Amino acid sequence: MRSFKKIYGSRRNMSEQDYEKSRNTFVIEGMLATTIGNLSMGVFLAGYVLYLGGSQEFSGLLLTIPMYTSIVQIFTPIIYEKQVSRKAIVAILAPVHRIMLGLMAFIPLIFQDTTTRLTVLFALYAVSFVILQLTNPAAINWIMSLVPDEGRGKYYGRRDSFMLATSTFFSISMGFVLDFFKQTSPGTGFFIIYLLVLVFAILNFYFLSKIKEPRVQIRYYKDAYTGRKIPAGANFKQIFIVPFLDEKFRKIIGMASLWQFSVMIAIAYFAIYQVNVADGNHGNFCTCLGKICGSKKLVCHATHCNHAAIPLSCLLVFYFSLRHLSRSFHVYFRWGLLVWH
Question: Is the pLDDT of residue 28 over 90?
């Protein structure tokens, strides 16, 4: 029990060396986590579903699970706002989520029936993302507690750059692996990918366990009726009413809601489109997507996350997206009609 508290408990006093080492370890953890996400979602998952015998409709439903399960995050303050240490929950549950994604490699080896395969795949994927959504808010706060306010832009830019470079490299590499085994043994390609996800998940657990956590300061507010001090976020009023009284929060949540609504409509069908309709191999698609998505992060890194870089980077992404859309509009249109019918 003492050794568990020593590894997963929070620290009252942390040296600057502890902070620096933990921040650097979080960079490595992020590189592993982002690579796992890229290899187990999107175009790779859509291709895996088709290999297991699933339909495009099932693939689309599966790909929207991360969005649907995010509703779980609303209730996480009830758990975390009362805890002085959140590391144990994050460091254990987050790797469990990623290990469950890696276990998808063994589905075709254990189950032969198509319906059973897809049912197990759906269950693993859904439960794993419910677990992830439970840990996400605490993980974000954990990182923020290690990075001083004046250095966050530079740190997040550097971390995102390393995460982008690593995930793009492995996405391209695994795309070529799939293409190599495509004609002879497609199952072998997917097995290698998800086995790599499993290995990275174990490494992710190791590095998360090495990161230290400063003791969390619990915030209290005084109840107007009883006069008792209650932890912030400990009831539904604090979760659903108090935040919306802040005008800045309402603006942010409005913009985020619009973004998430657009993503939910497009993300699943875009991955299916890549696998079923678009010309070119997995490697080429991953390369293009990495460049488009990476432009925003690289610009923010170069300017230390200056506010002016955000609209500029968004314009760059919008420009390349329009170019891609204009060149393949007729393909999108015909494929849309096909799905509609």
Answer: yes
Contact 45, 62 (CB under 8 A): yes
Instruction: Specify the 3-state DSSP secondary structure of 254.
Output: helix
Following DSSP, what letter does each residue of 295-306 receive, concatenated? HHHHHHHHTTS-
Q: List Cα–Cα distances, 216 to 76, 142, 190, 258, in angstroms.
A: 15, 9, 41, 32
Q: What is the CB neighbour count within 10 angstroms for residue 246? A: 11
**More confident of the two residues 196 and 75:** 196
| pLDDT above 50: residue 329 | no
Q: Can you list the domains of the chain with their CATH numbers?
A: 12-219+229-239+250-330 (1.20.1250.20)
Q: Would the pTM of this model clear 0.85, i.e. be above it? A: no
Report which residue type is found at 82: K
Mean pLDDT, the chain, whole residue set: 76
Long-range CB pairs of 295-298, under 8 A, 24+ apart, other chains included: 295/320, 297/157, 297/160, 297/161, 297/164, 298/161, 298/164
The answer to whether the CB of 108 falls within 8 A of the CB of 189 is no
